[in-house]
Amino acid sequence: MARWSPTDLTAIVDQACTRLRADDGRLWGHQPAPRWILVDEDVWWLTEPEGGATASGRMWAHDADPHAAVANTAVEWHGRDWAMIELGTDLPTVPLLLHEAFHAFWQPEWGWVTPAGGGDTSLSQPVGRAAVITELRAWGSYLETGDPAVGRGARSIRDWRLDQLSDAERERQDYFDLWEGIPEYSALRWDRTPTGEVADLARSGPRGGSWFRSLCYTTGPVLGYVLDHFDPGWRLGLRAAGSLSSMINSAVPPTESGAADLLDAYGYAETLHAEESAHVAWSIEDRVLRDRFATMLWIPNPGSVTFDPREVRHWDLGTFYRILSVHTDDLRLIVEDGAIVTANWSWIGLPAPESYDGSALTVTGPGWRMESMSPVHEHGVVLSSEAPE
Hints:
single chain; alpha+beta; six-stranded mixed β-sheet; six-stranded antiparallel β-sheet; 17 strands; globular
């Protein structure tokens, strides 16, 4: 049963399309015509006719595809690209529609972006988190004041923060700033979000308790708006530069004295103390989580994983995702309380069930449920404390 009327959904889609028409391709130099799938429980609302969908006003209703993974993402369906939005109890925002449209209709040309590896744990450590908060406060002050000297100070604080990271972690953050941060920046620009609101976003800090996968949703827009001030034509050089960090380094000079004299102005010491206190509770919770994975049921990754980027932790064994799902033609996995994905994305590890019957079609364990069209063991599952080779 659908929760939303096609009239409500048409109104929000119209707003997104109006924003894009007003831009007329100026932001990125071209203007595709996006199409959306709005997933409303067992009904898919399409913005264009496809696959026998029934017209309802200016939307088209289609039965939910039971074999398709549902998430806020870009998908290929019936041979065409779509931006998919999973509807909840509130209408989606215009920036959300635009963000996913960027993934589906602008980013396919970004084959030059190379996925990064696993990085490190700096974003779960007090020093790393306090440094991020301090840098963002500095950029927020620049966006609020427009003072180039404040911007140079923020650049120096950024240099100081990045110098503390491993090469792998810098590469990982650069990758996500491009792959997720730029769509978020673009959505806000298309939606004509004022600079002051992005300054507030910077001062508020990253969203979610874990920043391993969510930091980019803040840094992408913030750094993009900073570059709009220092170098309005920066987007033309993004591919050659290869990262937002390179663009910032080219456009924003650092101060001569570095970051040491600036940290107190943005409350670094107090922030570090608060993060150290919070880390005690976080560490206890993290140990409890790890203990749940002493023995795991491993399943080969079929390549259709969706997850919540706000609840992610980087472990030596792999990446912990609190919320995760897999949908294929013959397998459905719903994880509501934690799974591990190996660094190469080859395996998904689940807390072992109390009992395991490989001949069953349905297997449940702590916080997860797996349903298969064939006996589970035919998917190559392995019961082990270590990831399979």
